[in-house]
Amino acid sequence: MTPLVTAAVLLAAVTHASWNAIAHRITDKLVGFTLISGGGLLIGLVMALVAPFPAGPAWPYLLVSAAVHIVYYALLMTSFRLGDFGQAYPIARGTAPLVVTVLAAVFANEVPGMWAAAGIAVSCVGLTGVSLWGLRGHRPDWAAIGAALATGLTIAAYTVIDGLGVRAAGTPLGYIGWLMAVQGLAIPAYMYARVRGDIVRQLRPYAALGLLGAALSVAAYALVLWAQTRAELAPIAALRESSIIVGAAIGAVFFKERFGAPRIAAAGLLVVGIGLMLHAG
User: Fold this and answer.
1) d(CA 220, CA 198)
2) pLDDT at 127
3) Neighbours of 205 (CB within 10 A)
4) 24 near 92, Cβ under 8 Å?
5) Within 13 A of 46's CA, how many CA atoms are on the CB side?
6) How many helices (H) and strands (E) does the chain have?
7) Which run of H or E residues covers position 265?
């Protein structure tokens, strides 16, 4: 990973945590994700018009990824509805590089070594801490934790699918444009089917915030896809999840969520584990 690739992935981490915070900030999750997904659709169409058309072998990956992204959005909405941002975001993002390491070995022949195995072990400890700390004798909210973990699995799946797809496309810009255009149809169409003529009234109060989230979302993933054409999948996925610390800070500062020293330490362990996987790359 060159310094330029590293900088691109770190910038993607910050922008990704930011758009997720925007999605969490909008109280009606369907409204928020309709704006973010629909805004991504519009941006994707513009990108698709100016970029080269993706090569034929990339399209199976692109279409499968679009379907996985739709499931991801649905699970992410559920995670944010059920749990704190400072808990749901680290679990979802922290799960992904663990699974990507395995999937990249199976499907991209990028086999992890000793450092990656150590990173997985440390990350699992951190994940457990982020998930369960602060319960104060209460039972864990397994629905919230389960939704966040399932979200992480979809992140891992589309990371590997898109890593292979963008390499086959021959044009990162064209691939991300068409991906956003295809996947961006589903959630706005679902909301329209639910509310019909009331959709504009519901979207208007959050339009500016939601479209900002859309721009950040597209920028974050475009940076990652470009990086995946320059380096292996697992270290990129690992470095991108430094956004966990950004997400933890956003949850504490902007949402006033309790994220004391022990949970910060657990999130730090998660990032250390990810750093070990990055070292392995």
Assistant:
1) 31
2) 65
3) 12
4) no
5) 7
6) 13, 0
7) helix 261-280
